[in-house]
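Here is the promised in-class demo. Please do not try to memorize the tokens; focus on the logic of going from shape to residues.
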């Protein structure tokens, strides 16, 4: 049973990698007209989406895993995916000033809503 579960995880991990690559072909950007900067921003956004999906996938699998070692490995892999999100986000914030400003506005708005509570 454990071998089947591990095989399923490996298939899902391969699917994650394939989905990440395939996701690029599904982006709405017109590759013929986009600037190199916009193409790179879209690549980073697609990467962030794929990594977020991966975190959800591995955390859901961990929640259902019965073997403690498998659960531990899945949660460790999910944590690593969060690092990947940070890598892509860090680059995107360097390349998209509007995104950086809107992120900061969003954080301030949450602080203000918390203060109102
Ligand atoms: Fe990843």
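The designed amino acids, position by position:
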């Amino acid at each position: 049973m454990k071998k089947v579960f591990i095989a399923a995880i490996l298939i899902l991990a391969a699917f994650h990698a394939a989905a990440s690559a395939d996701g690029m072909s599904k982006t709405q950007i017109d590759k013929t007209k986009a600037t190199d900067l916009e193409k790179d921003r879209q690549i980073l956004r697609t990467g962030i989406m794929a990594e977020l999906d991966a975190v959800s996938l591995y955390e859901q699998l961990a929640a259902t895993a019965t073997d403690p070692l498998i659960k531990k490995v899945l949660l460790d892999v999910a944590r690593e995916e969060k690092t990947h999100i940070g890598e892509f986000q860090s680059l995107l914030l360097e390349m998209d000033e509007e995104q950086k400003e809107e992120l900061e506005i969003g954080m301030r708005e949450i602080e203000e809503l918390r203060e109102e509570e």
